[in-house]
Amino acid sequence: MMNNNEILYPVKRVGNIPGVEVGYQFYSRCEMVVVGMHSHWLNGIDCMFLHNKKKHNSYKFPVAVCIVLSGMYEDDVDNAEDIVYTGQGGHNLSGDKRQIADQKLKFGNLALTNCVEQLVPVRVVRGHESSSSYSGKVYTYDGLYKVVNYWPEKGISGFIVYKFRLRRLEGQSTLTTNQVNYICSSFI
């Protein structure tokens, strides 16, 4: 679809996607890609890089435009309007959510730090397991959040992770998802 230019909003943008309101649900990551909400099938952080400079020349790149919070990192803390989001990298891709290496301040992590410095809001999408979805998950758009600050720290598994505190911007529609509770059976 990307190669055939069949994406509704193919140019990455900061802020809301026209026609996508708070509470809108996607039944797969593919649906988010088609609309232009989040352009990655797997990554949690969607960014604009230097090649986006033609359309967005006022930013220092990279800059994040959207994150998907779906329980992939053991160090995430989601309290609805206030999130401590674990950056990308260093986790076990087999699905047990454990960190197996230190994270680096590059790619999506660097993009989120640039959001702090430039006051760029990011779209937040929360993923929940759902038997009613053909993909096994439902992704809900929960609005724009400000990346307030960031810091590196030793995570639960003993590796350095980058933490990003995000706060929901005021004046948006009420959240339809209050909090994401993720339970990993290997930690119980």
What does it look like?
This protein is mostly beta strands. The protein has helices at 29-35, 108-118, and strands at 25-26, 45-48, 63-69, 77-79, 82-86, 121-129, 137-154, 160-168. A hairpin with a 2-residue loop joins β4 (77-79) and β5 (82-86). The longest helix has 11 residues, at 108-118. It is globular and about 40 Å long. 34% of the residues are buried.
Write the layout of secondary structure elements.
Blueprint: E1 25-26, H1 29-35, E2 45-48, E3 63-69, E4 77-79, E5 82-86, H2 108-118, E6 121-129, E7 137-154, E8 160-168
Parallel strand pairs: 3-6
Antiparallel strand pairs: 1-7, 2-3, 4-5, 5-8, 6-7, 7-8
* Arithmetic mean pLDDT: 86
Radius of gyration: 16 Å
Instruction: Return the structural class.
Output: mainly beta
End-to-end Cα distance:
41 Å
Provide the β-strand percentage band: 25-35%
Q: What is the count of DSSP helices, taking H or I runs of 4+ residues?
A: 2
Compute the number of strand runs: 8
- Overall form: globular
Unreliable segments (pLDDT under 50, ≥5 consecutive)? 179-188
- Largest sheet geometry: 8 strands, mixed
Order of helices and strands: EHEEEEHEEE
Helix content: under 10%
Question: Top keywords for this entry?
Answer:
single chain; 188 residues; mainly beta; 8 strands; 10% helix; globular; disordered C terminus
What is this structure, in a nutshell?
The protein has 188 residues and is mostly beta strands. It has 2 helices and 8 strands, in the order βαββββαβββ.
